[in-house]
């Protein structure tokens, strides 16, 4: 898997390098600030691709004593670095747009620049679709992030081509800095989004979509012995996930049987969520207490203190807190 991810990101790096050179050629032909904006953003593709290669290399290294959860967190550094570079490029593009407004520079040889931009945009569209599909297939946020960034480049290049066509047929020179200004704003927004995603991952922000899928699986396949599930936490390390949770089981179960119940829960989730990356579990078994009887569905419980009253549907609200269902006090 590691070698395949490296091959994919190396393809991205080489293609981005060639396309960046072509865009700078278009700029020197036309002196268009909008084309320069596009070329500056493409430099970021090259730098980010190089950083992504290193992050994928680290992600593939096995766990060790210094990194017991692996090296997957470096992927969040990768997309954070890419986001910061995109943000800086957006600022530079806005600066150049204002500069051309005040200096009133003329765009030359629009037609040649237009053909080069069209060719590089089609190549970038293929690359972005390729990377996004590979990122989903491998559950790699680095490859997906790189594909998202390049797709942004495709959108901005499409707007640029429309602007160049307008300039070619009308001669309106003001279109060039105006389009560059819009592209700069779009690039700033996308840089911010990648930075936000990086910070969320580094701060272990919970992936609520994955939590919802986990809860749905547990609700649909629950066993009667799983009296409740609580204190669930999901942490992402690259394309690996670490899931912690507490499962309340009948207190009289032998240790072997309790272990089998927790192992069956782990096996179930791995099977139902196949394709979401590797999942590692730490499941803590809690013994039931008398107040658990009213939500316990075991029909032949030999030590029941109270009759069964109602089943609990697991949701974010009762699975994430560190509190047994049916108990008013937090679990210690």
TrEMBL record:
Keywords: Membrane, Transmembrane, Transmembrane helix, Transport. GO terms for cellular component: plasma membrane. It is found in: Membrane. Pfam families: Cation_efflux, ZT_dimer. Belongs to the cation diffusion facilitator (CDF) transporter (TC 2.A.4) family. GO terms for biological process: intracellular zinc ion homeostasis. It is a multi-pass membrane protein. This is Cation diffusion facilitator family transporter. Residues 9-203 form the Cation efflux protein transmembrane domain. GO terms for molecular function: cadmium ion transmembrane transporter activity; ferrous iron transmembrane transporter activity; zinc efflux antiporter activity. It comes from the Bacteria. Its main location: membrane. The chain crosses the membrane at residues 7-30, 42-60, 81-102, 114-133, 154-172, 178-195. It comes from Chitinophaga parva. Residues 212-288 form the Cation efflux protein cytoplasmic domain. Coiled coil: none annotated.
